[in-house]
Amino acid sequence: MSSHSEIVASANGVSRIFRSKTGEVRALDNVSFTLSKGKTLALVGESGSGKTTAARILLGLDNPNSGIVEILGRVLGSLKHEEMRLLRREIQVVQQDPFSQLNRRHSVERIVSGPLMAFGVGDKESRRTQVIALLEAVGLEKEHLKRRPHELSGGQCQRVAIARALALDPKIVVLDEAVSALDVSVRAQVLNLLRKLQQERGLTYLFITHDLGVAHYMADEIAVMFRGRIVERGSREDVFENSRHHYTVGLLSSVPLATPTLSKAIRDQVQSLPSPGEGDACLYRTRCTVGLTREDCKSTSLVITQGTSTHSWLCHSPVQDSIPA
Ligand SMILES: Nc1ncnc2c1ncn2[C@@H]1O[C@H](COP(=O)(O)OP(=O)(O)O)[C@@H](O)[C@H]1O
Ligand SMILES: [Mg+2]
């Protein structure tokens, strides 16, 4: 977002609709973001808001219905098979579940050397040397080479997954709830490891989490997602200290985000609202104390408001407009 930073990946107006017999889900609706070299963008939002779908599209594992995704200056979907294969080296992923993302029948050595083998890097001996160096980089040791996932703790499995993600020396790493399954103390260790690796290797992170505390610790920039849309985006300070979207404020205040107690008149209004996903009106309005009563929130298409060069939001009546300075 800063004009001085080098952009290594971007999503521009990306939409992804899943269709089924019972209807359609807009998993992503006109989503745009950029990743700056050596920085962390945190994608935050509750379960089902579209975070993993965004990650999968960035990783080239799924295709958008519309919009453009660029990785290192290449437009996904326009690449020949071999170009796409080479680009895959540059963007790797660590997922949430420490155990299920690793092949339980494989040793740590086999798991971490997997990407090297897939790209025909080195021979068995040189790969072993590389794997040992990678294990050391993530705080594991040579003695872990022969272990299998079930002989490791959750934190150690995540370290193995990180070592595997780094094997091909990628520029970008997608961390999809990568610490969410870990105990608090282990989580802190893995977060510190990720920060250290980022500094040493100049890595760019897309850091996906539903945990704002973790996002605050890790992120340079934050994009808040709600039901397939980025509702607020900005620097960490913008989003945490100058929140404009009511959903962001709700997340931050850690007040349960259930619908507040409603008067009967408002309840009737809520029931008459169009079903979510129709049109471009605000999808948060039925949970928003402001949106429930304002006509434009249910009838008028949202547009992105650019508050500052780094800070934008998707709301007709943002927080603080109503607070006297
Ligand atoms: N392959 C799929 N088929 C149908 N619906 C899907 C698929 N993947 C995701 N969805 C739906 O898209 C929405 C966003 O999912 P997801 O990206 O996994 O959210 P998050 O990672 O934020 O929890 C959800 O409603 C989910 O049920
Ligand atoms: Mg997810």
Entry keywords:
single chain; 325 residues; binds adenosine-5'-diphosphate
The averaged pLDDT comes out at 89
Biggest sheet, spatial arrangement of strands: 6-7-8-3-9-10-12-11
Strand content: 15-25%
- General form: globular
Number of helices: 11
* Class computed from helices, strands and strand pairing: alpha/beta
Described by strand count, sense and barrel closure, the largest sheet is: 8 strands, mixed
- Please trace the helix and strand order, writing H or E for each element: EEEHEEHEHHHEHEHEEHHHHEE
Low-confidence stretches: 255-278
Whole-Å distance between the termini? 27 Å
Question: Which ligands occur here?
Answer: adenosine-5'-diphosphate, magnesium ion
Q: Over the alpha carbons, how many angstroms does the gyration radius reach? A: 21 Å
Report helical residue fraction.
Answer: 25-40%
Give me the count of strands. 12
List the helices and strands and how they pair.
Blueprint: E1 7-20, E2 23-36, E3 40-44, H1 51-58, E4 66-71, E5 74-75, H2 81-88, E6 91-94, H3 108-118, H4 124-137, H5 154-166, E7 172-176, H6 184-201, E8 204-209, H7 212-218, E9 221-226, E10 229-235, H8 236-241, H9 246-253, H10 264-271, H11 295-299, E11 305-306, E12 312-313
Parallel strand pairs: 3-8, 3-9, 6-7, 7-8
Antiparallel strand pairs: 1-2, 1-4, 4-5, 9-10, 10-12, 11-12
Helix pairs in contact: 3-4, 3-5, 4-5
Bound molecules: adenosine-5'-diphosphate and magnesium ion (MG).
